[in-house]
Amino acid sequence: MGVALLEEKNKSSNYIPGLGDFSSLITPSPAADEDASATADNESGKKCGPPRPQEQPLRSAMDDEPESEETEEYYVDPGKHKYMKVFACSDSEQLASEICANLSTTKGRAYTGKFADGEVIVKILDEVRGQDCYIIQISALRRASARSITLVTPYFAYARWVTRHMESEGVAGDPALTQPATPLAASDIALMYEAMGVDRIVTVDLHEGSLEGCFDVPVTNIDPLGLPLKYFLGKDLHNPVIVAPDSTASDRAFLFWRRLQNHGVNCGLATMVSNRKLGKREFLLLISRDFGRDCIIVDDIIDSAKRMSRTVKDLRQHGARRIYMYATHGVLSPAAMERINRRGVTEVVITNSLPFPEHARKSEKIRVLSLGQVLAEVMLRIYEEKSVSQMFWDNQKKEGSKRPSGTATV
């Protein structure tokens, strides 16, 4: 009976191909068949319930036998997220697939094409009237009468252009970027999103927290440090030191140091302080002068890797043992890969907030952590009108330790 229902569902016009052969097998809507249900497996290996033996046929609520509690775990509630739609642009398909897999839903269908003159056309192929949409194709969904539009942009472009005295790493011929004529592009992007109908922004690890003030709509800035925390806790680190490559990264490095301390890791904290007027860099070790230690450089973006390269050089001069680099957003320009492969950095850890560049795939020094599960949980909490900050409350409760007092210039 269950197999027949599944075959009928596949033939119906409501069936939407999704993440793979079986990742999008979601039950029909209650309006179409209130009693039918099916399973939803995703590519990452997570299932909606315990594994079913291969010889056991697909079951339906219409079978004669009453459903047991164990049987109910095999199925996804077809109406749980029926007013939620997730759309992806071409360069975020993989991350969107992971998010949908964690939400046990399929991606919304949209067509994106180009005219001969390069203009882009976007057509929404699903009904979105009255739906809560999490999207990239903003204005097209607004015109289709979506109830709300949440823009999920893990990497907020132009976030480094939030002040006139922006850092100019990675920009050729850049002295003029510190002049009063420098545009505040981040603010312009914020206005553009709002003009196109965005109701909420979800992003990850903004370069400048002050950027949230550029928006009139709610902004959810996700703290992703739990991902590298779990990763490095699994490493056999020797007397580690957390290093901020610049004063602008010191707060982020301090938060990571504090979380490691809260998990029982006795580690040091250091920062590189640049005096841009004098063109000098000073190395400040806030905890312990001992070296021959493993170092973890913590930053938000690795683009040209110039700052990483300088910091690695300084750490080597002070006797560092192994040097790791964590950056949330891996822009990884070709010049960055040359520096990563040439310099003495042991490993560079990033997230998949940006598509992984093709020229970086051959490097054995890059590790990518997935934001899929975190973003899916945030989106679900927004959809169900639950607190997003509660996700990170456990870490926040533990972070009661104080910033180390006293500095030692090495």
UniProtKB/TrEMBL annotation:
Its EC number is 2.7.6.1. Residues 9-74 are annotated as: Disordered. Residues 63-74 have a biased composition (Acidic residues). GO terms for molecular function: ATP binding; kinase activity; magnesium ion binding; ribose phosphate diphosphokinase activity. GO terms for cellular component: cytoplasm; ribose phosphate diphosphokinase complex. It comes from the Eukaryota. Pfam families: Pribosyl_synth, Pribosyltran_N. Residues 84-164 form the Ribose-phosphate pyrophosphokinase N-terminal domain. One of its GO terms (biological process) is purine nucleotide biosynthetic process. Pathway: Metabolic intermediate biosynthesis; 5-phospho-alpha-D-ribose 1-diphosphate biosynthesis; 5-phospho-alpha-D-ribose 1-diphosphate from D-ribose 5-phosphate (route I): step 1/1. The keyword ATP-binding applies. InterPro entries: Pribosyltran_N, PRTase-like, Rib-P_diPkinase. Keywords: ATP-binding, Kinase, Nucleotide biosynthesis, Nucleotide-binding, Transferase. Belongs to the ribose-phosphate pyrophosphokinase family. This is ribose-phosphate diphosphokinase.
